[in-house]
Amino acid sequence: MQCSTTDRLATRSALIGAIAAAALLSACGSSVKLDENAGKPAPITDASTNKSNQADANANASSNVNQVVLTPKNDDALAGGLTRVVYFDFDSFVVKDEFRGAIDAHAKRLMANKDKKVIVEGHTDERGGREYNLALGQKRAEAVQKSLTLLGVSADQLEAVSFGEERPAVTGSGEETWAKNRRAEIKDR
Amino acid sequence: MSFSDSRRSACRGLLTGLALTAGGVASPVSMALAQFRVEISGVGATQIPVAIGRFRDESRSPAALSAIVQADLERSGLFKVLDASADRLDEASRPALSDWRSKGADALLAGSVTPLADGRFDVRYHLWDVLKGKDQGGLSLVVPAADLRQAAHRIADDIFEKLTGDRGAFATRIAYVSKSGGKHHLLVADSDGEGAQSPLTSPQPIISPAWAPDGRQLAYVSFETGKPVVVVQDVSSGRRRVVAGFKGSNSAPAWSPDGRQLVVTLSRDGGSQLYLIGADGDGLKRLTQSSAIDTEAAWSPDGASIYFVSDRGGGPQIYRVPASGGPAQRVTFSGAYNISPALSPDGKWLAYVGQVDGGYRVHLMDLASGTVKVLTDTRDDESPSFAPNSRQIIYATRAQGREVLMTTTLDGRIKARLATTVADVREPVWGPYLQPRR
User: Fold this and answer.
1) Do A92 and A180 fall within a single domain?
2) Based on CB atoms within 10 Å of each CB, which residue in A1, A169, B143, B267 is the most buried?
3) CA distance B2 to B25
């Protein structure tokens, strides 16, 4: 069951959408405002709900943990029908020639419309440690980002982030699966 | 507007439902909150035989206190527990210690649990040092039902300390992550894995939980906004704040020993590099300056150094840099892939995960000598973390096709599996002592 549905905010960044969704969550008495751009702590909306209506001896138990539940957001953007996914070889961060055409098309689209922003998400296969894989995914995202800036796209229109191994396109193991997960995805914001 | 009104009431319904399952000892276990059993294997070097009987009236309380104490002591690897239940002792008994000597016990524990009129419980226990023929005294703890498990862990800590001379770490908490039903949960449980509660449920991944030194807050990486950001959450109030949400990716939080700063991995200036940041989000200062990946920092307990993973030499290895900045020194030299450093609170050991024959295993390095030992024979280990008394390590691994949490003694001999039948569990971190030294 979902507490809120984020309206598609087609021309604004996912960041603003997230803040709007979090504001809606305040109706649940449990909210988070995540203000990425400042790099400073977001103002805290009190997330504590007094969960115990019974005045029992447990109310002051030192082991209490307050639960926060976040709800899904709709962030699936298709970047104008262009090829969104660039695949990488094992242990590699080089954008292969077969994807040059797709990158070119994205670059043209972004240079034609300076207000348009995209996020490049880097991913790895499941092998290895999570934080190290997050950093490897970041290298893939930055490789695609660099390809775009070298073609003339302004850095302001791009953000390179990583999901590491946390969001596989295909679950499972084996070389075929791993190859489908070693990728960077370009998404509209 | 009717749409938002119905959403609001639906929200309240969801939260009320959650409220009823949070906090109480007798609450039903939801799908997301798995129950753990403890399976212990291995033989320890020297084990102190201690006789423990069921506490008088234990069955009238929600927690099986003597069983919790027994499991704690056995998991530490330092004790062998004998059953004293048949003798029906309690803390006021006057046992004939020579009888217990001839039964092979070095110590004897007995106690009672009495429900009080205000709903709390009076837990009393007594420890006798059979070997020395000496009464070691005991305590009375008055606690609400929700804290009964913790009372049992405190008793185990007291016994551990009286019999070994070292401080016990049973009355502590662990945090970890689980994934089930498409949702990700951050979980907090007792050090034995029981009593799990969920400070955070999210449709997006949660990784890299890290306890603040005060044991009240958890830092972690959340992908809820579509990219990794570092969040700090107060466990008992649920209040959350973003500590690092810069452009690009933000991850791998590690607290300074004084709780005032964190090291984080940021890609704001390109690549993945280490930065220091105040716990309130202020005072950003870059710590590493390489063209490689620098990540997974871990602070030394004396606050002077930061260990981290870098692939500046080719593959990922563990390095150390002064917390005030400066050149990094390589620390791991064997194996091509070494990650996930964890420092023991006593400053003597470094645990990490190293790749061996294609598998990933927990390694332990004696920092004084540099000697390294592999502690496991499993192949998918991750996230080693020390108990606050530096005597055990918790880690995640894969067993029979599912992700599980394990503890091991530092000699690798006694391992305990905190088994779950429901969710895949990962990324454990052992919290600090909960109470200041008396």
Assistant:
1) yes
2) B267
3) 38
Q: Would you place residue B434 in the very low, low, confident or very high pLDDT band (cuts 50, 70, 90)?
A: confident
CA separation (Å) from B210 to B36, B216, B254, B298, B428? 21, 11, 6, 10, 9
Q: Whole domain around residue A165: which residue ranges?
A: 79-188
Dihedral sign computed on CA atoms, order A32, A34, A39, A42: negative
- Length of chain A, please? 189
Q: What is the pLDDT of residues A89-103, one digit of tens each?
A: 998 999 999 999 999
ipTM: 0.88
Going from the C-alpha of B129 to that of each of B48, B110, B161, the distances in angstroms are 11, 12, 12
Reported in sequence order, the residue ranges of B66-120 that DSSP labels E, i.e. its strands, are 79-83, 107-115
Give the closest residue to B110 by CA, choosing from B132, B136, B76. B136
Q: How many CB pairs under 8 A join A and B?
A: 251
Residue B17, pLDDT > 70, answer: no
Tokens of B265: 């991995």
- Of A23, A54, A73, the one marking the end of a domain is A73
**Same domain as A135, residue A117:** yes
Statement to judge: residues A69 and A102 lie in one domain: no
| A115 and A101 assigned to the same domain | yes
Q: Tell which of A36, A52, A73 closes a domain.
A: A73
A94 with A160, same domain: the answer is: yes
CA terminus-to-terminus distance, chain A: 26
* Interface residue B15 vs chain A (CB under 8 A): yes
Assign residue A107 the CATH number of its domain: 3.30.1330.60
Q: How many domains does chain A have?
A: 2
Please give the domain boundaries of chain B with CATH numbers for all domains.
37-164 (3.40.50.10070), 173-430 (2.120.10.30)
Please tell me whether residue B276 adopts helix, strand or coil conformation. strand
Question: B238-275 burial by CB neighbour count: b if 16+ within 10 A, else e?
Answer: bbbbbbbbbbbbbbbbbbbbeeebbbbbbbbeebbbbb
Q: Is B112 on the interface with A (CB under 8 A)?
A: no
Residue B283 CA to chain centroid, in angstroms?
29
Same domain? For A37 and A115 the reply is no
Q: To the nearest whole angstrom, how far is the Cα of B330 from the nearest Cα of chain A? A: 17
Q: Answer yes or no: are the C-beta atoms of B146 and A61 closer than 8 Å.
A: yes
Pairing state between β B424-430 and B79-83: unpaired
Q: Could you tell me if A119 lies within 8 Å of chain B, comparing CB atoms? A: yes
Neighbouring C-alpha atoms within 13 Å toward the C-beta of B367: 20
Say whether both A116 and A142 belong to one domain: yes
Can you list the positions of beta strands (E) in chain A? 68-69, 85-87, 118-123, 158-164, 183-188
Which chain A positions have a beta carbon within 8 Å of B118's beta carbon?
57
pLDDT tens by residue, B236-255: 999 999 999 999 999 999 99
Residue pair B385/B430 in contact (Cβ under 8 Å)? The answer is: yes
C-beta atoms of B18 and A36 within 8 A: no
Query: A126-177, pLDDT tens digit by residue?
Result: 999 999 999 999 999 999 999 999 999 999 999 999 999 999 999 989 999 9
Q: What is the pLDDT of residues A18-62, one digit of tens each?
A: 444 444 333 333 344 443 333 444 333 334 333 433 344 555 566
- The CB-side HSE value for A116 (13 A sphere, CA atoms) comes to 16
Whether chain A has a CB inside 8 Å of the CB on B62: the answer is no
